Amino acid sequence: MDFINKKRMPVDVSTHIFEEVTYQVDGLHVRGLSMTPKQQVKRIVIYLRGGKGQVGKVRTGRLLQFSDEQTLVFGPYYRGNNGSEGKDEFYGKDLNDVTAAIRILNHKYPNVHIHMIGFSRGGLQGLLTFQDLPVSSYIIWGGVPDIYLMYEERVDLRGMLKRMVGHPKKQSEAYQQRDALSKITKSSPPILIVHGGEDRQVGIHQAYYLAEQLDKIGTTYRTFYQMKEGHVPKPFALDEALNTVKQWMTDVEQHSIKDDYHLNNKI
């Protein structure tokens, strides 16, 4: 189990090697961007991009934000994007592009903690997959937790959703398959919710809704809300959010997620 092709990317970073890798999923050749440390790998971060097509695509700068000298960061492009074969199904079989990559990396580095980070559209991408994978935690950052809320609130996206998924009533089964909250359990890996209070693309009430549902389920989670920030935080706030995410991963790895895990940080 491994990637079937690796193409060195012209990115000059002294601590890591950037490669565009190809792997096989459902008979398709799917690509992703891998950032592998030159030192021993002690942590893996899977970055699940937002958007569709060229909007929100995986970029080297975004992967670098989650790295240190011993962290491997990988971002799947999803099928139908950036040279990957197939068609993006918006939380359909493209979910397999996430799970296959993680299983390859888990096979290559069997004793290394894996953390998933889902941004925007990637939020639901991760919620639909993380509980069935060998991962230590999941971070949903400005992420969509519920496809019904997406359809209801993002009128500008309804045309795209109707084309790719259908109508919530007419194609109810397709929407039920994308209902992530019904699949999360008390024993699912712990979740960190990161969100901006002034996010206009994915309103912070969606983060509140996710937290409420996790409370009901009994899933371990924390929240980190930056009340003056939008979908993408400003530079100083971004550093603070990244530090929080990295500390979360360390806490999970050290088994120091305490009983006050429903901690609500608002800045």
Largest sheet: 10 strands, mixed
CATH superfamily label: Alpha/Beta hydrolase fold, catalytic domain
Structural class: alpha/beta
CATH topology: Rossmann fold
Span between termini: 44 Å
CATH classification, class level: Alpha Beta
Cα shape: globular
Mean pLDDT: 92
Task: Enumerate the spans where pLDDT stays under 50 for 5 or more consecutive residues.
Answer: 259-263
CATH architecture descriptor: 3-Layer(aba) Sandwich
Succession of helices and strands = EEEEHEHEHEHHHEHEHE
What fraction strand? Answer: 15-25%
Helix content: 25-40%
For the record, the count of structural domains works out to 1
Continuous helix count: 8
What strand line-up does the widest sheet have? 1-2-3-5-4-6-7-8-9-10
**What is the CA-atom radius of gyration, in angstroms?**
18 Å
What's the β-strand tally? Answer: 10
